[in-house]
Amino acid sequence: MSDLAKLARQPQEVEVLGHKITLMPLGTSDLGLFEKEDKTTAEALKTIKTVIMKSIEGATDEEYTRMSLEYMLALQEAIGKVNNVDEDTIKEKSKLLKAIKAEQDAKSA
Hints:
- It is a single chain.
- By secondary structure, the chain is mainly alpha-helical.
- The chain has one domain (about 5-109).
- It has 4 helices and 2 strands.
- The protein has helices at about 40-55, 60-65, 70-80, 85-109; strands at about 10-15, 20-25.
- The protein has a two-stranded antiparallel sheet.
- A hairpin with a 2-residue loop joins strand 1 (about 10-15) and strand 2 (about 20-25).
- Helix 3 runs antiparallel to helix 4.
- The relative contact order is 0.13.
């Protein structure tokens, strides 16, 4: 094992809304997920899905689509912490998800 291999982040077990899960940290190959700042809602949701799917080993598309927005927000925050993402970045993503939820609630009302 080289010195560089020792710098790789290891999977971490976290508790999200009472559920223990193991999150896989993101690496340098994932930097492209964050390069565009002015994303559309669809682009932002695609990024969030990609991060979640890469972070949770064995996750399926069906499981992702059935996940509640409340859990998605909490999971996104946990992924940020595992990957040492800045709190401001986490808050911005949460604002986006809250805006999406409000839009969905308005459509279903």
